[in-house]
Design goal:
- Helix 1 (2-10) packs antiparallel against helix 2.
- The radius of gyration is 25 Å and the shape is elongated.
- The protein has 242 residues and is mainly beta.
- It has a single domain, classed as Porin (Beta Barrel).
- The strands form two sheets. The protein has an eight-stranded antiparallel beta barrel with strand order 1-6-7-10-11-12-13-15. Strands 3-4 form a two-stranded antiparallel sheet.
- The chain has helices at residues 2-10, 14-24, and strands at residues 31-42, 46-50, 53-54, 57-58, 61-66, 71-82, 85-95, 101-107, 110-116, 119-134, 148-165, 176-194, 197-210, 213-215, 222-241.
- The chain is built from two helices and 15 strands.
- Strand 3 and strand 4 (57-58) form a beta hairpin.
Length: 242
């Protein structure tokens, strides 16, 4: 590097030498990072449709305003920062179980009260954080990336849903799975407690549609269960950069 600087200062092919120097120099504050976190998720009420066919035609059961249980959540994220912009891969796990509840159900245009029994819904997700933006506040020689880092993340997310019927007698307890794509948005604040270690808290929002297929207990008929999860997450954890 000293040789390149000397060439630039002495005028010996300065453009070529300096261009090589810049190309060979990594971006300022570029770094890998690895995070572990845990928290909680909450999914607001939404409709759930069991797609059922009959001799007379479709007889879908649409359960309205279904409640989803809150859940613990945990995950791991790794990525690379090119200064203020970065990329990441985020894997996390949460549940959105359906508890036993009384709801209205619509069947062939008629809406009546009904009891929906418990169904477990486990979600495993992998997000490609194609957008990671951060602001390095209160930067110093000891903390070149800043003491505080507000940040934003966004990207497409693959969701694998595993659904298990627990109390609906007309359905078996065979596990049904579905893999689909949705997205994740996040915003957080990182506090650099050591030069290479930070604590962070983050709010995130995920959305996806899923249609795992359960099975009729008597008929053996496939029963796709169609729903959409708009889930809010609060997580906190520790991040190490290297």
């Amino acid at each position: 590097m000293k040789c390149f600087l000397s060439m630039c200062m002495k005028g010996i092919r300065p453009g070529f030498a300096c261009a090589l120097l810049l190309a060979a120099t990594p971006p300022a504050h570029a770094e890998w990072d690895l995070s572990l976190y845990a928290g909680a998720s909450h999914t607001p009420r939404s409709d759930v449709t069991m797609v059922i066919g009959s001799a007379s035609g479709p007889a879908d059961h649409t359960f309205h305003d279904v409640k989803w249980d809150p859940s613990a959540e945990f995950g791991m994220r790794g990525g690379y920062w090119f200064g203020w912009y970065g990329l990441g891969l985020d894997a996390f796990r949460f549940d959105a179980d359906i508890p036993s509840q009384n709801v209205n159900v619509t069947i062939q245009g008629a809406t009546v009260p009904a009891t929906l029994q418990a169904i477990d819904v486990a979600v495993t997700a992998v997000s490609l954080d194609l957008i990671r933006l951060r602001y390095r506040a209160f930067a110093s020689e000891a903390r070149p990336n800043g003491l505080l880092q507000p940040y934003l993340t966004a990207g497409p997310t693959f969701f694998r849903t595993a659904m298990t019927n627990r109390g609906n007698g007309e359905l078996t307890t065979r596990i049904a799975t579905d893999t689909t794509m949705g997205y994740k948005l996040g915003a957080g604040l990182s506090w650099q407690i050591l030069p290479s270690t930070a604590l962070f808290a983050e709010y995130r929002y995920t959305r996806f549609r899923s249609e795992p297929t359960l099975q009729g207990a008597i008929t053996g008929q496939n029963v796709p269960v169609r729903f959409e999860l708009d889930t809010q997450h609060l997580v906190a954890g520790i991040s190490v950069s290297f």
